[in-house]
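Feature request, filed as a ticket because there's no other form

It would be nice if the structure record came with a short human-readable summary line next to the tokens. Right now we just get the raw output. Example of a typical job, pasted below so the devs can see what we mean:
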Amino acid sequence: GVRIIGERHVVVNNYFAELTGRDSRAAVSFLNGLIDSPLNGYFQVKEALVGFNTFVGCNEVFAIGVHSGSDAVLPPTGITITSNVVTPARSNAIRYADT
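Raw output as currently delivered:
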């Protein structure tokens, strides 16, 4: 799958099939960010676009606000999920770990 960390990422025109991960190992996971993140840390997700992808039989398709640790308190903002094709997910199509 794809983990989104940081600003203005674009994930388009991909095919994801039979992925079994959850949380940070979901087909697409948006991780929470750290306040004043170091360069090797987790920056807050801002303005990410996920569109025109196909998801077939994945366990968890989108995991939003996944924690990378107890200090990860900045939830994703301004994300756009649009025009994706999702066949029945085994568990969750979208799961909010943090709102």
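Something like this underneath would help us a lot:
The mean pLDDT is 93.
The longest strand covers residues 60-66.
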